[in-house]
Specification:
The chain is α/β, with parallel strands linked by helices. The protein has 10 helices and 9 strands. Helix 3 packs across helix 4, helix 4 packs parallel to helix 5 and helix 9 packs across helix 10. The protein binds flavin-adenine dinucleotide.
Length: 279
């Protein structure tokens, strides 16, 4: 069993779609284990579309002696299907879940018996007691579908009150939003660790497209600098490493309880950032 680093780090992967992707991810994980993550998490596609791949990747991580968390989303799910999947995860030896509502592609009827992630957290606690450590999502820059900033904070509080042990944030590049979120959560007496989600910057178009969809703000100065590099991949990478390492330094200095890296199934940027941070 591998020993986690003293400052908690975690890494997120998505389940690969092809046998080559599975092989590549195995190699990526071995490189990333150098930073001694406390756990690695694996995303779960909308409506359970990646369930087999998610569970297979989680199984491999556990077999490699590393803590694993399965993401688990509930949009379109029924109590019966969730109950069945919880039993499978328990039998696999999974002890950690990242519990989400999820998103369905537009045009899909949501259906299902769960409306919000808080409903799923409550159900998991009622069904399985404290068998699982439950993380939920937090949005320092406000979830794009929230009615208001205040409503979103209360939606977060509902997930904690339903039994979440901690949270991982959507990625952001403005640490003030994160520290303000911590203050607001403290003022509500929530008392759970909120770990910032870190998205290394490795490509400009991908980041800009992805961020628009999930409501993560790319500050104007970062957007313009990235655009000014054009197709110069080396400059984008160098700039991205500087910006994201600075962000991580600010977060650590300000008391963030850990760092969660959205690896996008790549190792180089996460490893370089951790090396610069001395982690
Ligand atoms: P919720 O907490 O249910 O919130 C969804 C929206 O509903 C918010 O706008 C909230 O303000 C509002 N809301 C909540 N409760 C109420 C209420 N009672 N009344 C009115 N409004 C309410 N997606 C995937 O499909 N698979 C993944 O593996 C995945 N992993 C993720 C990991 C992290 C760390 C993060 C930050 C996000 C992840 N996502 C994933 C994306 C996530 O599913 C989407 O952001 C989704 O739109 C919201 O999920 P949630 O769990 O935050 O939902």
């Amino acid at each position: 069993m591998h020993q986690a680093a003293p400052f908690p780090l975690s890494i997120e992967f998505f389940p690969p779609k092809t046998p080559e992707g599975v092989e590549k991810l195995r190699a990526v994980r071995q490189r990333l284990y150098a930073i001694k993550p406390e756990f690695c998490s694996v995303t779960y596609g909308a409506g359970g579309s990646t369930q087999a791949g998610t569970f297979a990747t989680v199984r491999e991580i556990l077999a490699e002696g590393v803590g694993a968390a399965s993401h688990f989303s509930c949009v379109g799910a029924t109590k019966a299907t969730v109950r069945e999947q919880l039993a499978t995860l328990k039998a696999m030896g999974v002890k950690r879940l990242v519990t989400l509502r999820g998103d369905l592609p537009s045009g899909y009827g949501a259906g299902g018996e769960f409306h919000y992630a808080s409903d799923l957290v409550e159900f998991i606690r009622a069904e399985t007691g404290h068998d699982f450590h439950i993380e939920v999502a937090a949005y320092p820059e406000i979830h794009p579908q929230a009615k208001s900033a205040e409503a979103d904070l209360h939606a977060f509080a509902a997930k904690v009150k339903a039994g979440a042990n901690g949270a991982i944030t959507q990625y952001f590049y403005n640490s003030d939003a994160y520290f303000r979120f911590l203050e607001d959560a403290d003022a509500l007496g929530l008392g759970v660790p909120v770990v910032p989600g870190i998205m290394p910057i490795t490509s400009s178009t991908q980041l800009l497209r992805f961020s628009d969809a999930c409501g993560a703000e790319i500050p104007r100065w970062i957007r313009l600098r990235l655009q000014s590099f054009g197709d110069d991949a080396a400059s984008i990478k160098a700039f991205g490493l500087d910006v994201v390492t600075d962000l991580c330094e600010q977060l650590r200095a300000g008391g963030a309880p850990g760092l969660h890296f959205y690896s996008m199934n790549q190792s180089a940027a996460t490893l370089e950032i951790c090396s610069r941070l001395g982690l």
